[in-house]
Amino acid sequence: MSGGKRNGKGESMKALGGSRSRFISGVAVSLGLALVGLQPLAAQAATPTISATVLGRTTIQVSGYGFGSGDRVMVVDSVGGKVFTWATRTILPPPPPIKCTSSNPCQYFPIVIGGRISTTLPKHVVQCLFESVSVRAYDLTTHTHSNVARVILGFGLCK
User: Fold this and answer.
1) pTM over 0.85
2) In 3D, which of 59, 99, 95, 82 has the Cα closest to residue 138?
């Protein structure tokens, strides 16, 4: 009789409890993965990053990311150049699922990249010497600033 009780009601309750705990742990893992997936958004929004290049030795082209989506951004340089632009938002489709299982549920969250900028500062009048110029961008909505990018303007020494 004791063998019948093990295979009877008592064991089915244990099996039911086991599947319930697996379900709850699967939900917890899914929530944890969703929160981990959102962390890069917060990191991007907190630290805008820019890069700068020189066109024709007198014009600075600036691009960057990590600004607030739709925020107004001011880009300034160390020789008095200033321009205002708007940060755009880029939404990437989620990656295709590799294999969805109960222990590895499919995630269908789109990837949102923080606001991007691309702008050109006014042309600088540089005579002959190389001139080192620093460029920085300010998100006017979140009051955060980017890294400093440095470029060299000019044509070199005059002859």
Assistant:
1) no
2) 82
